[in-house]
Specification:
binds geranylgeranyl diphosphate
Length: 310
Amino acid sequence: MLRVDEVIRDRLSSRVALIDQISHYIVGAGGKRIRPRLVLLFSEALGFEGPERYELAAIVEFIHTATLLHDDVVDESALRRGRATANAMFGNAASVLVGDFLYSRAFQMMVSVNRMHVLQVLADATNVIAEGEVLQLMNMHDPDLAVADYLQVIRFKTAKLFEASARLGAVLAGADVALEEACADYGRSLGTAFQLVDDLLDYEGNSSELGKNVGDDLREGKPTLPLLLAMERASDSERGLIRQAIEHGEEEKLPQILAIVRQTGALDATRQAAQAEADKARKAILSHLPASRAREALLDLCARSIHRSS
Ligand code: GRG
């Protein structure tokens, strides 16, 4: 990961001062670096040790960072990684454009890796992520959203990059199709579990630990699983309150809604759904990867993605 950080620092540079300033601002704030870790762990688990793994790990982190810059503009978020968001500091236009810089820099780096399969995986993944965000936009303020449609959005907007990161480790190692798919399955399930917990933490998390504001989803009228499950289980009057909050984005109702999602067991049920996905991720690799330190770390990531507070 230290090598990945070196590549990240090296490839961030631009002759345009504002790009340097904003990209260092967001990348320097840290982040958990889960996606690059997946690239490294899968390539290690499958015996690939070439330097391309560091380049690909940095590439997925750049794509992730570009999506964060764009997402914080779309969501009008004020806090990210424990700091004011780039949009709050530098404005929406600068954030979107520096996101474009990082995204296109990632594609320059991919070309330098010179493998068509890598290019295909990442071109497809970024396209699906964008589709996921547009689908989510269409679902805003819709209290009648089906759970299956919510799950499709999180598979697209979040799980797809986890899937691509895991798959790339397998591609680098020259894995056969079945093995590549097992790695991709792990990434997809882990990413789904990760987003389910993200949506849970937006209700029960702590802003200072999370590094971003809780309650943002309600403010935006985003129908996430805690609300969808609470509506299935609540009384008529409680359901009415949640419906209204989704339709109008009533952030001030957060304490009341929080009480309902807790009492109805919707938070526990969301955690259980995340746990089921994490179990799927574990199973996807247990029978496919030989026992190794890297496989242990991948299994450990499943547990840590569920029991996290940031
Ligand atoms: C530029 C390809 C491209 C698309 C733009 C806005 C957008 C379309 C996509 C946004 C997708 C998005 C932000 C999904 C949420 C993913 C998520 C759970 C982010 C938080 O990830 P962490 O917790 O963040 O890994 P850190 O800060 O730890 O890196």
